[in-house]
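Archive entry. Fields below.
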Amino acid sequence: MTQRVAITGVGAVTPLGVGVETLVERWSAGDSGIEDGLGCCTEFEPTEHLSIKEARRADRFTQLAIVASDEALARAGWEDGPSVDPDGVGCIIGTGIGGMKTIEDQLDVLRGRGAEAVSPLAVPMMMANAASGVLAMRHGLKGECYGTVSACAAGAHAIGAGLRMVQHGDVEACVVGGSEAGITSLAQAAFEGMGATSPSGFSRPFDARRDGFVMGEGAAVLVLESEEAAKERGAEVLGYFTGYGATADAHHLTAPEPSGEGASRAIARALADAGIEPDGVDWVNAHGTSTQLNDASETKALKTALGERANQIPVSSLKSAIGHTLGAAGAVEAAATVLALRKGIAPPTVGWEERDEDCDLDYVPGEARTLESSGRPLCAISNSFGFGGHNAVLCLEAA
Amino acid sequence: MATANKEQIEERMTEALVSFGAEKDQIKRDANWESLDVDSLDLVELAQIVEEEYGVKMKEEDMKEMKTVGDAVDFVAERAKS
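PREDICTED_STRUCTURE:
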């Protein structure tokens, strides 16, 4: 028998501020954290949260994850570490790139001052699993621990992997999430070079005027526990992960399969895993990147997987408010979904105005919408798709 | 390459250790690395600074012998002169 998985902690650092409540409040109010075409965490000052030693030994992507994890564990009542046997607490944190700034800085050192000047901290800072390792040390999490790397699906894959671990009883709890700090000169040039980012600097998911994604940075961390363990210790349950589905397009290195076939299979798998039909879905927190290709194929995928239900429910993209946080996105969006479901709302796709013939669903323009309740707990799916053809979909239920 | 006396070397090392996160008022000649929360990664960084500024190589086996700030200062001072 598999365990039902409760969410007992959540935390985030995003371009809308430090804290997950701030994120959802501001997104719901239609605020944007994007300035000059970038979604930077401008309110995040590492030294306000970390000692000198902690800060200088962590790339920004790890710093962001640390602060999000402190919030999530505090929310779970675990300020001083898990109250259960630490051997039974896992930690899985996804990232698209890892310590990009560290790589760039140390390459400058190598070229300017030679190999002997390269920092001994370079490897522990740039490795993509640094965040998971650092969080395990910081909070004393001694169960299974690693990073997931699947571009913009990494955060969702991390949650999916943690969900399975808890469902199967491998661990009693798992700290999961995603983190990214990829707003660096090389990464910006690279994404721009492949035509993925927006020349206009506007993030307009599903809007006819969309012209690419806006780079963002951030992190989100959630605490997953078996419902039984959470209730036993009297933890407040914030929501549930009820399903997970992941597939590959096996189509192209960067472009999504145009019909959304791979994505639709991931959605269908997530629903089947949750044991619900399309009419059990009340809201879609979309991947919605603001690229021509993603938003059109995601719309098709939703129609394929949800059928007529796709036309009846709101579909919003958080990337309209914070840009694309890459490997953090799946976790940031799942974290926002937990709180939005608690409030019973679908926040808006900020700035959506012009309908595109390929994007013809209800993208929640203008302001947040109250979700219609049909007597059962509200359910949402959170989509994440990554370069490489990675599709990961999570199914969430309100507590 | 700077020639330097013990005092200057200690001052420079203190500055480096503070930048690594050690508490300045705890950095004394007889302070050992554990008490300053200085680990092997910090020592490699310290060795890089020492080599760049004084031309003195601190090898891994040398560092194993150094237990305190004073040990490191003396090691560098002795070799920086020659």
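CURATOR_NOTE: The mean pLDDT of chain B is 93.
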